[in-house]
Structure formats: C-alpha cells, structure tokens
Amino acid sequence: MNFKVPRGTQDILPAETWKWQQVEQIIREVCDVYRYKEIRTPIFEQTELFQRTVGDTTDIVQKEMYTFTDRGDRSLTLRPEGTASVVRSFIENKMFGYPDQPVKLYYSGPMFRYERQQAGRYRQFVQFGVEAIGSNDPAIDAEVIGLAMDVYKRAGLSKLKLVINSLGDTACRSAHKTALIEHFTPHIDEFCSDCKTRLDKNPLRILDCKVDSNNPLIASAPSLSNYLNEESVAYFEAVKGYLEDAGIEFEVDANLVRGLDYYNHTAFEIMSTSEGFGAITTLCGGGRYNGLVEEIGGPTAPGIGFAMSIERLLLAMEAEGVSFEVAPTLDVYVVTLGERAKRAGAKVLSALRTNGLRADMDYTDRRMKAQMKSADRLEANHVIVIGDEEVDEDVVMLRNMATRQQEKISTAEVVQKILQADKEG
Ligand code: ATP
Ligand code: MG
Where, by residue number, does L-histidine bind (predicted)? Predict the structure, then answer.
C-alpha cells in the first residue's frame, strides 16, 4: 500500500521549514514591539462554539468544518479559525478583569477547513492572528491594521493593497438588512440554494457569495455605506484618520463584507497586487467584533483582530521574488579513519557541540574521500581529520575550508581554536 498526505495538506520539508521559521521570527518580533502576547489554545473545541461565533450561515459552519464525535459522545470540531477559541479563553480565564485593557493576544497554529484544494487554499493551513479585546477606541483598529501591514513589510513585501470598510453597528446593519431582503426577495430564484437560506438569516452574506458574484443584482444592491448612522460614520472617520497619521495607505471599498457573522464597524483585507500571484489575492482579513464576547456569555468587551495564513504570505514572498536568509551551514565536519579514530572523533564531536558549534560526522562507515565530499556538500567551515597516527599522538588534523590551511593541533585545544577562528573570521 502506498500512503500519501491527505488531500489539501502538505509536508513541509527542511528547505521550506527554514523559510517558515524566518517568517515566524518576524511575526514574534513585530508582536513583541506592539506588546501582543502569545496565546495557545487547543486544536479542537466544542462544535457549538464555532456555530455560535462564526455563524450558522457561513461557508465555514455550513460546509467546511471537520466535526467528529469523541468516545464520550461529545461533538468536537477541529478549529477552522482562531478568534472563537481566543474569545472563549478570554471569558473562561476572566481576562476582562486584567488591569491593562485591551488584552492584546496573538496566536499561530494550524486551522482546518474542508475546502476545494487549489493554490493558496489548503485543508490544513497555519494562521497567524491577533486579537485586541476590551477597547472600543478607533486607535486600536489602526494599530491592529498597522501590525498586519508591518509583518508583510518586514517580510519584504511591497506590492500590497489595504482595503477597508465600515459595517456599521447593529442598528445600521438591521436597517440595511431590511433593505437587502426587499432588494433580493423578488429575484431570489436566480440565486444559489445557499443564498436562498441566507436571505432571511443574513442577506449580507449574499454579497459575499462565490457562486453568484457576477449576478448584477449584487452590484445594484443597497450599499451599507448609505445606512451608516452618525456614530458609525464618526468611528470610521476616526479610524481613517489614525491610518493616515501612521502613513498607512488604504482604499475604501463599500462592498467589502467579511465572511464571518460577528463583524461590525471596521472590516479590512490586505491583498497582494503582485503579478505573479495567483487568482486568490487576499492575504489577510480582519475586523471589529463588538458583540462577540457577550454573545458567548462574557461581559461587554469589544474586540478587533485579523488572521493571515503563513502559506499565502510565503506565496506572496515567492511572487515578489523576496530572497530568504541563507540557512547556516556546518561549523565542523569530523572525518575519521578506522575504529579507534571513530571513537576519538565521536568524543571531539561531543565537545564541539557542547560548545555550541554545529558539528557532524559520518555514521555509515564511508571511506575518507566520501566523507570529505560530505563535508563539501554540507559547506562545513572546518574539517577535522583523525586517523590512527593522530589518535596515538592525541592530536587532530584541522583544516580551514575557506583558506585551505591545515594544521596539526592537540585534541584538547581544537575546540577553542575553532571558536577563536570563527570569532575572527
Ligand atoms: P477566502 O475568501 O479566501 O476563503 P476567508 O474569508 O475564508 O478567505 P478568513 O476566514 O478571513 O478567510 O481567513 C483569513 C486568512 O486566512 C485569509 O485571508 C487567508 O490568508 C487565510 N486562509 C483562509 N482559508 C485558507 C485556506 N484554506 N488555506 C490557506 N489560507 C487560508
Ligand atoms: Mg474561505
């Protein structure tokens, strides 16, 4: 039997994990300067958590969740996104009582969605996201957006487009909802079956439908921007002002509605405008969710956050031709000839590693020439050669691969010698 990775998943091999680690490092550094702290929540949660927070009418809940019943007959779901878990944890751990509000958290880890596989769309993917919970200040909206932009810029991306919109508060959304229902009801037969169920529950989602996106009724639908009340307009203006002050360019798109039910006020997406990037150009999506904490049993605690996948970030870097740092190579490769030399070599190897030097040796009893080839392939900076003669004299042959200089040196001194050479070199 031949086993393969499950559809929509991938193995990330060492040449790629090296890139992942660099991106993860950038993420940690950016979150650190903005004072966002990492939170780690379980990979699965009670199914109902996602139904309640993400929303019953969303694609995620309707078709994309990996849901299973465990041996105790509980319905659990592999998390499809991160906000629900963070908000659950915020409430469960009473973070609303922390003296410093908002609570600023970030997460990074695998998410699971049963989707059609295509470039940039996987069934298991890694999302990095932040949540700032406990403040309704438009300045924090601009901070969260700025943080996402900083990650992309630090990763070397320049072909970016930030699109923002306001979804208003509950009052404007409900007036807009009525208008949408009136607009779509006479023609609902032209729409897909999902849209038919969305019509009464959440007609805003029709605007976001992937099947019916070309129907002219979508373009002619009443725009939410005409339903924003004074407070919502003022809030949106303030967010824009903070973005401008921070020198962050943006476009307003009145048709931007995010997929999840829980958003209000600020919604945003960041796209790649790089030509080399495929059909899916959205790198990051986020927005404000003022009622969510209450919705699942917490106190009033307005929040805002975003999520981006590392997979799409790496694809965008590739499309823009961003170069990665070169992976560090070996400091030392130990070449040995014969049984006694092998034992002496293993001892030196252990001393090298204890001193923090990247070192390795041969474990397949190859001849000297093959071992030297390995040292070349692994781009070792130094090679230590040990044969019977060296063992007898308690010395090693140390070769500097850059200068090709070679010297006999006592076993006791070789580690210090290499550390010294590395410091100078
Ligand atoms: P899309 O419209 O592309 O399906 P979405 O609205 O479902 O996106 P969100 O739930 O907002 O996406 O997730 C935020 C980000 O997570 C996306 O902008 C994208 O970078 C990433 N993402 C979402 N789904 C996937 C996936 N299946 N594979 C890889 N990355 C994904
Ligand atoms: Mg999706």
Answer: 81-83, 113, 127, 131, 258, 262-263
Sign of the torsion formed by the C-alpha atoms of 345, 351, 353 and 355: negative
Ligand minimally distant from the alpha carbon of residue 115: 1
Largest CA-CA distance found in the chain, in angstroms, rounded: 96
Residue nearest to atom 30 of ligand 1 (CA): 309
Q: List beta partners, residue 332.
A: 359, 382
User: What are the pLDDT digits (tens) for 137-174?
Assistant: 999 999 999 999 999 999 999 999 999 999 999 888 88
Instruction: Please tell me the distance between residue 309's alpha carbon and the centre of ligand 1 in angstroms.
Output: 7
307 lines ligand 1 (CB under 6 A): yes
> Is 345 annotated as ligand-binding?
no
Decide which of 3.30.930.10, 3.30.465.10, 2.60.40.10, 3.40.140.10 is the CATH code for 14-169+229-319. 3.30.930.10
pTM of the model as a whole: 0.93
Q: Which DSSP category does 130 fall into?
A: E
